[in-house]
């Protein structure tokens, strides 16, 4: 039996034209989801990794004034693209690459350190926002802005003013991470999974944040029905110490590792998920209040339980606050406005 002879490959052109029988002349690209992360510092990279790990973006753009850093981070992540859903990952300083993005996450700016007050870095971050926000919004006019830069309530207000976006399409990360930490510390004390705990922190992130002890529950069972004094100074179990622990966490992490990034990145990715998939998930994020409804007749951004979807903040969740919680909310609002009014002339 004569062995059949194999005909040699007739490779005309190059490997691509041989391997792929026919390439479409006009690729349909309308279902691609682009997410932009402005800032390639550790926090920006953590946001990018969390978004890509959840396979939320078919295209992710890292924008940074340091283009070499942005390109290096994008290339480093791209090497494992096969296990991230094969997204297109770009590092650049060109804001034109933000064109048609669904979400733009802003992570740039000086962050707080151990002995700093918001006023110490507010002016610096305001100058940065005056440059980046108009540039991002020029190319992504239909996007939702997610602000991570501190002080987050003030910078969210600045972003809304500079972008001209409707208030619902500007979201601050707010007290979302604070709420997650609160939930985690409560779960640790109970010795159960954090997913079984419902716990919220609202208002201003930091010392003036408001733990909503009246809404803390385990699988729907309010802990206040078990311990009437929970979270108060007379609480025999000292649950209020957990709120202090939440407040001190940022400072402790910065002292031990120089920055904090992963918790923030994961929280940001959850918000991006709610936007691009329109899940109507609920988070304690910073949102715009016209003539604040919590005891201060001023327009500010502050954290409340919000429903987040494709158009950003779609609605608020109304809670029945105790008189003490309402009092603390008023104080929190006043602190936000006192910081905000110092820069009003520069953005109005």
Automatic annotation (TrEMBL):
Residues 33-172 form the Lactate/malate dehydrogenase N-terminal domain. InterPro entries: L-lactate/malate_DH (IPR001557), Lactate/malate_DH_C (IPR022383), Lactate/malate_DH_N (IPR001236), Lactate_DH/Glyco_Ohase_4_C (IPR015955), NAD(P)-bd_dom_sf (IPR036291). Keywords: NAD, Oxidoreductase. CDD domains: LDH_1. Transmembrane segments: none annotated. It comes from the Eukaryota. SUPFAM superfamilies: LDH C-terminal domain-like (SSF56327), NAD(P)-binding Rossmann-fold domains (SSF51735). Residues 175-338 form the Lactate/malate dehydrogenase C-terminal domain. GO terms for molecular function: L-lactate dehydrogenase (NAD+) activity. GO terms for biological process: lactate metabolic process. NAD(+) binds at residues 39-44, 64, 125. Belongs to the LDH/MDH superfamily. PANTHER family: L-2-HYDROXYCARBOXYLATE DEHYDROGENASE (NAD(P)(+)), L-LACTATE DEHYDROGENASE. This is L-lactate dehydrogenase A-like 6A. It comes from Dinoponera quadriceps.
């Amino acid at each position: 039996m004569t062995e059949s002879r194999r005909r040699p490959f007739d490779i005309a052109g190059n490997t691509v034209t041989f391997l792929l029988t026919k390439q479409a002349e006009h690729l349909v690209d309308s279902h691609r989801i682009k997410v932009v992360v402005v800032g390639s510092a550790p926090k920006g990279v953590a946001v990018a990794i969390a978004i890509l790990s959840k396979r939320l973006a078919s295209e992710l753009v890292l924008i940074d004034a340091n283009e070499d850093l942005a390109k290096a981070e994008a290339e480093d992540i791209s090497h494992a693209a096969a296990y991230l859903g094969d997204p297109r990952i770009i590092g650049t300083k060109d804001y034109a690459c933000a064109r048609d993005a669904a979400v733009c996450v802003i992570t740039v700016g000086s962050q707080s350190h151990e002995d700093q007050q918001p006023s110490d870095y507010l002016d610096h971050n305001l100058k940065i926002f005056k440059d980046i926000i108009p540039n991002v919004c020029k190319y992504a006019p239909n996007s939702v802005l997610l602000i991570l830069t501190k002080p987050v309530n003030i910078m969210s207000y600045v972003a809304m003013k500079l972008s001209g976006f409707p208030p619902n399409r500007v979201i601050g990360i707010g007290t979302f991470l604070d709420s997650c930490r609160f939930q985690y510390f409560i779960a640790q004390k109970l010795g159960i999974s954090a997913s079984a705990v419902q716990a919220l922190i609202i208002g201003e992130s930091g010392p003036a944040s408001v733990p909503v002890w009246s809404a803390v529950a385990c699988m729907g069972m309010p802990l206040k029905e078990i311990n009437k004094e929970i979270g108060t100074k007379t609480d025999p179990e000292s649950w209020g110490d957990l709120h202090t622990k939440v407040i001190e966490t940022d400072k402790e992490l910065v002292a031990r590792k120089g920055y904090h990034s992963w918790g923030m990145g994961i929280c940001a990715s959850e918000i991006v998920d709610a936007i691009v998939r329109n899940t109507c998930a609920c988070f304690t994020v910073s949102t715009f209040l016209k003539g604040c409804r919590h005891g201060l007749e001023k327009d500010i951004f502050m954290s409340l339980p919000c429903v987040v979807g494709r158009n950003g903040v779609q609605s608020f969740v109304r809670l029945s606050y105790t008189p003490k919680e309402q009092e603390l909310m008023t104080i929190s609002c006043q602190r936000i406005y006192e910081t905000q009014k110092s820069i009003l002339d520069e953005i109005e």
